[in-house]
């Protein structure tokens, strides 16, 4: 059940991060959602490593996943060199 929870939270965080981070990722929407899912795992790991805990519940988990997804999307945009049209 925990894996399904993180998949759902990761997809939500990926969609939110996609709305915040400008530009198009290398995989389009689907790629950004996958990056959001991976970012959720990274965000959870980072918050636990740095703070000693993660935030409980849907809102806290989504916040942690969102932070991880935004960081990972920014890194991916930098590596791929894609820029926003703005």
Describe this structure in words.
This protein is an all-alpha fold. The protein has one domain (2-79). 78% of the residues lie in helices and 0% in strands. The chain is built from three helices and no strands. It has helices spanning 2-20, 28-51, 57-80. Helix 1 crosses helix 2 and helix 2 packs across helix 3. The model has no long low-confidence stretch (mean pLDDT 77).
Total count of domains: 1
Mean pLDDT: 77
- Report low-confidence residues grouped into runs of 5 or more: none
Helix content: over 70%
| Class from secondary-structure proportions | mainly alpha
| Total number of beta strands | 0
Q: Helical stretch count?
A: 3
Using only CA atoms, what is the Rg? 13 Å
Question: In whole angstroms, how far apart are the ends?
Answer: 41 Å
Oligomer: single chain
Précis, in short:
By secondary structure, this protein is mainly alpha-helical.
Provide the fold topology.
Layout: H1 2-20, H2 28-51, H3 57-80
Can you tag this structure with a few keywords?
single chain, 86 residues, mainly alpha, 3 helices, 78% helix
């Amino acid at each position: 059940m925990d894996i399904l929870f993180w998949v759902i939270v990761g997809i939500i965080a990926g969609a939110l991060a996609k709305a915040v981070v400008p530009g198009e990722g290398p995989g389009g929407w689907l790629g950004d959602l996958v990056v959001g899912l991976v970012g959720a795992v990274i965000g959870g790991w980072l918050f636990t490593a740095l703070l000693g805990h993660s935030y409980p519940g849907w809102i806290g988990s989504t916040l942690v996943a969102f932070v991880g997804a935004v960081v990972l999307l920014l890194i991916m945009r930098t590596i791929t060199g894609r820029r926003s049209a703005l």
